[in-house]
Amino acid sequence: MEFWAMAWKFGWADKPMMREAVQVNCITMDQYKTITGEEYTGTVA
Question: What 8-state DSSP symbol labels residue 10?
Fold first, then answer.
């Protein structure tokens, strides 16, 4: 999860990329919420 947290913090990853990370099991839905501050819905916001 550290990689994805840093990628989000520094703007290397956007929401679509973070959703894809959940879909391919790189991070969990809970980790997505911790990193982005938003619930994972799997849809474009």
Answer: T
* pLDDT per position as a tens digit, 20-42: 999 999 999 999 999 999 999 97
Give the global pTM.
0.86
**Degrees to nearest 5, angle at CA 40 with 2 and 21:** 45
Whether residue 31 contacts residue 4, with contact meaning beta carbons closer than 8 Å, is answered with: yes
DSSP per residue, 1-45: -HHHHHHHHTTSS-HHHHHHHHHTTSS-HHHHHHHHSS---SS--
